[in-house]
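Bench notes, afternoon.
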Amino acid sequence: MSCDLIFVLAGRPERKPYGWELFQSGLAPRLIFSVGRYEVRRTANEPTKIPELLEIRDRTPPERRHFWADFRQGSRSTSLAEVETPGTFWELHALARYLAPDFPQRIAIVSTAIHLRRVKFCCDKIRAFRNSTVLYVAVPEDRSSFRQAGWWKHANHWSYLLSEYLKLAAYYFRYRKPYSTGKD
């Protein structure tokens, strides 16, 4: 399995180290981390040492603090992600705008296993993803903060599972029609 781009969604702390590992293994020549407001400090330090994330964070009003860390064969850049509204749908919508007009043919999207249902739903609704092969890559269960085996034994797993299914149901109602990025 190889692709043109690995994209790692913001959120759970295990996503970025796993995405970085895939990038280092040669899965793709390009990696983009989506860095949400509350994970800037962690992402700036681990696993890749990106001090410029702290600098761009300090120049950006809190409500706009969502960034891309874009790695390409020996170089990297950071930029404001221009996510319109918080949430998975708008994060992927912003990615589609960021990648246009040269949208990759094969994209691996890294997230937590339970979250990938909603990610797939979003990609199906955003037109830019339709002409690409999207690989949905789950963080391995032994590295994940959510484990399917025995999830009912942990209160935090209950709440995460419940919130994912509630969000998925809400997305079905909110994002029924296909969305264009204006560049596709």
